[in-house]
Design a protein that fits this description.
The protein has six helices and seven strands; from the N terminus they run E-E-E-E-H-E-H-E-H-H-H-E-H. The radius of gyration is 17 Å and the shape is globular. By secondary structure, the chain is an alpha/beta fold. It has a single domain, classed as Nucleotidyltransferase, domain 5. A hairpin with a 3-residue loop joins strand 3 and strand 4. The protein has a three-stranded antiparallel beta sheet. A two-stranded parallel ribbon has the order 2-7.
C-alpha cells in the first residue's frame, strides 16, 4: 500500500544551512510562512520526503522499486510507468482508474477497501507533534524522526 500526506512545516524550521530542504512556500494570506513537503510511504518499508510541488504519483516507482509484494494498493497512482513497473515485479495492481483515462481498467474493490490501513499509519505518525508540524530544519533530521516513530509503532511502544 502506498500513499502520500502533506506535513505543515513550522516557521522556525525554515532557514537551514544550505537552504530549505524539501520545502516550498505556499501561496496565499497567512499560510505563506508555512511550507509543505510530501511524505510518501510504503507501510513500514520505505519513506520518501519530497517538496510540496512534487506530484505524489511521480514517486510511486521509487517506493515500489525492489519490493516483493503480491498486490499494489494505491489511490489513483495509475500512471502507466508505475503500473508497468508493478506488473513487471509480479504485483497485481489494485488502483481505481483516474477519470481522464480513456480505457478504464477494473480493480478489486473489496481488496481496495484495505487501503485504509496506510491512512491509519499516517494518522499514527502525525500524533507526534514533531512530525505533524515539521520542526526539523533538515530533510534528513525529519526523515529520521519519521523512521523513529515508525519503529515505535512497529514495536508497539508508543
Amino acid at each position: 500500500m502506498i500513499d502520500a500526506s502533506h506535513i505543515k512545516v513550522h516557521p522556525h524550521a525554515a532557514g537551514a544551512k544550505g537552504g530549505n530542504q524539501e520545502m516550498i512556500r505556499s501561496k496565499g494570506g497567512l499560510i505563506q510562512r508555512y511550507i509543505w513537503p510530501w511524505m510518501c510511504m510504503v507501510c513500514r518499508v520505505r519513506i520518501i520526503i519530497t517538496d510540496g510541488t512534487t506530484a505524489d504519483w511521480t514517486q510511486a516507482w521509487q517506493l515500489i522499486s525492489g519490493i516483493a509484494a503480491e498486490y499494489l494498493l494505491a489511490d489513483k497512482y495509475d500512471s502507466d510507468a508505475s503500473v508497468a513497473q508493478a506488473q513487471s515485479q509480479g504485483m497485481t495492481v489494485v488502483i481505481p482508474p483516474r477519470k481522464n483515462r480513456k480505457v478504464h481498467k477494473g480493480y478489486d474493490k473489496d481488496l481496495y477497501k484495505l487501503r485504509h490501513l496506510v491512512e491509519n499509519a499516517f494518522l499514527h505518525l502525525k500524533r507526534w507533534r514533531g512530525i505533524a508540524s515539521r520542526y526539523a530544519k533538515n530533510a534528513r533530521s525529519f526523515l529520521a524522526a519519521v523512521q523513529i516513530r515508525c519503529i515505535a509503532l512497529w514495536a508497539n511502544i508508543s
